[in-house]
Amino acid sequence: MKFLDYLFHGKELKAIGNYFKMLNGYSPTFTSFSGGVYEMDLTRTAINNFATHCSKLKPEIEGSALKSLEKTLQHKPNYFMDTTKFIKRLATYVAVEHTAFIIPIEDEYGRLCGWYPLRAERCEVVESEGQLYLRYLFANGSYGAIEFERVGIMTDFEYKDDLFGEDNSTLAPTMQLIHTQNEGIINAVKNSANIRFLAKVANMLKPEDIKKERKRFTEDNLSADNDSGMIIYDNKFSELKQVESKPYTPNALQMQHIQENVCTHFGTNMDILQNKFDENTWNAYYEGKIEPFAIQLSLVMTNMSFTERERACGNAIFFSANRLQYASNATKLSVSTQLFDRALLNRNGVMDIWNMAHVEDGEKYYIRKEYTEVSELHKGSEQPVIIQQVPQQTEPAAGEEPQNGQEEKEGVNNAS
What ranges does the record list as Low complexity composition bias (predicted)? Predict the structure, then answer.
């Protein structure tokens, strides 16, 4: 199966020419940051960490219009990717280029059957016969095109352009600092490892003689053949000193400055990047970074997948996450018990909190009765039993019969 045929099913692609000019005169073509924002270790880690956490989002389809595609979206949105790869690739594109496209995949009958992400760097918005198209360059040099109104657009850092996000030029100084510091570390390590002795020549020697003496001294004393542990030199050298090799450590303040710049740009912190976060750190990261991406992805895929009438009838696509995944066991236990017996969580919901497999009949809800399935509550609505308190009666006087059928207590004699 050809990749182009898979996406467009052999549909005739029109010859598309002129660029579509935005109102501000900007031509919407994209390039990645020169020097590669994805090529530095720290920035790549920040991008990949964000994309990895986003890939754990769970897609759900609400409504009946595309309910048959819910399992497709949850497992394999297209022929080449499962759901985690689909979401992770989208998140990576948005973090690196601040723009990503999603195109619908249709079967031979024109019905929606999947979704595919496109990288913005290889895309351009063009016009043909009054119709806007998104034209995409494939790795083999072929072009594909699709009507622009059917495309989903994920963006970040929106400002100058009317439709798309900005580039990573603001990160250029930090990237240069990272590059310069890496080079400094490499050169410092090389220099400290190479120079081990300083020798002062006693007599005047020609440059070529100095080179010969350096080579001879190294071979005689510093090679593996010298197993005695002793260095001997003649009167050609008046002084010989050993250079202490000290390990080079980068400037801590510079490293912290670089890390803070990268973390600020990508909305993260070192605890998240090094997987040392607690539930409070995770909740803050989710609120500030993961949730906005999930909301935008939900809206983009809802708008591109449903008609206006279908959206008005309540059809939508949602991406959600288990926010309690990184909570402490005490928090998980408290939430599980408090919400389960109030019928706000079912048993499978509790299993999700604890990262356990679902159980049979786990979709039923229970409420304290103690405990009764919600659908069974009406069966226990018999008339309540009213318990009346029997008034306390005094002991009968001597010679009197007990009243109201009260019997004399066993072993108690009448008063004389």
Answer: 383-393
In the three-class reduction of DSSP (H, G, I as helix; E, B as strand; rest coil), residue 334 is classed as: helix
Q: What are the residue boundaries of the structural domains of the chain, listed by start?
A: 3-169, 174-242, 327-382
Distances (CA, A) of 232 to 10, 195, 241: 82, 18, 13
Q: Which residues contact residue 244 at a Cβ distance below 8 angstroms, ignoring those fewer than 6 apart?
A: none
Mean pLDDT of all residues in 9-28:
43
Placement of tokens 């288990």 in the chain: 322
Q: What six digits make up the tokens of 262? A: 């990268």
- What contacts 201, CB < 8 A, 6 or more positions away? 210, 213, 236, 237, 238
Q: In whole angstroms, what is the distance from residue 334 CA to residue 341 CA?
A: 11
- 3-state DSSP assignment of residue 116: strand
Return the structure tokens found at 288. Answer: 């500030």
Q: How does pLDDT run across 230-244, given as a tens digit for each residue?
A: 676 666 766 767 666
User: Can you tell me which residue has the tokens 């991008």?
Assistant: 47
Residues 6+ apart with CB under 8 A from 248: 185, 188, 189, 192
Backbone angles phi, psi at 62, to 5 degrees: -105, 135
